[in-house]
Amino acid sequence: MNIVVDTNVALSGLLWGGPPNQLLKWARDRKIRILACSKAVDELQRVLGHSKFATRLETLEISPQDAMSYFLGLISLVPDPEPVPSIIKEDPFDNLFLAMASHHQAKLIVSGDRHLLDLGSFESIQIVTPAEGVQVITRIEEAAGSLA
Predict the structure, then answer these.
(1) How far apart are alpha carbons 147 and 32 in whole angstroms?
(2) pLDDT at residue 104 above 90?
(3) What is the pLDDT of residues 29-84, one digit of tens each?
(4) What burial letters (b/e) apply to 67-77, b meaning 16+ CB within 10 Å?
(5) Which pTM was predicted?
(6) Count of Cβ atoms closer than 10 Å to residue 140 Cβ
C-alpha cells in the first residue's frame, strides 16, 4: 500500500514513538510504501535542522543527517508532482502532499495538519491522522493477511 506522510508525521516518527513511528516501522519492514519527493525530503531536512530539535536528537544520539539517512532508506522516492493544485491557501506547501498522493496513486495521506485533515479526502484519497492511519492500514492489511 502506498501512502504519503506530511513533514510533521515524518519528523514525529523519526524522533518519537506512537503511530507515526509505527508507520515508519512498517515502511522499514516493507509492509507499506511511504512515497516522498525531493521537495518533501528537502523540507524534512530543513525542519530537522531547527534548533528546537537539537536536544531530542542529542537524547537519541543521532544527528539530523543520521535521521535523514534513515528516512531515505524507508521511503520510495518519486518525482516531484506537476502541477501542484492550489487548494490549501493557508499553507500552500501542503498542496504538495495532495499532488504527490494523486500523481503516484497513494491510498492515504497521513497528517496532523488541520489544513489537510479538514479536507477529509482528495480525489478519493483519504486524509487521516497518524492514529487513524495505523487503524486503516491494520484493517486493510489484516484483511489481506499481510501485516504481522
Answers:
(1) 9
(2) yes
(3) 999 999 999 999 999 999 999 999 999 999 999 999 999 999 999 999 999 999 99
(4) bbeebeebbee
(5) 0.94
(6) 15
- Residues 6, 94 contacting (CB under 8 angstroms): yes
- All 3 cell numbers of residue 95? 498542496
Q: What is the pLDDT at residue 144?
A: 80
Here the cell at position 129 is 491522522
DSSP of the chain: -EEEE-HHHHHHHHHS-HHHHHHHHHHHTTSSEEEE-HHHHHHHHHHHTSGGGHHHHHHHT--HHHHHHHHHHHEEE-PPPSSPP---SSSTTHHHHHHHHHHTT-SEEE---HHHHTT-EETTEEEE-HHHHHHHHHHHHHHHT---
Query: What's the average model confidence in pLDDT over 82-94?
Result: 94
The grid cell for 12 is 514525529
Q: Are 18 and 70 in contact (CB under 8 A)?
A: no
Amino acid occupying residue 16: W
Kindly list the structural domains of the chain, giving each domain's residue range(s) and its CATH number in brackets, ordered by start.
2-144 (3.40.50.1010)
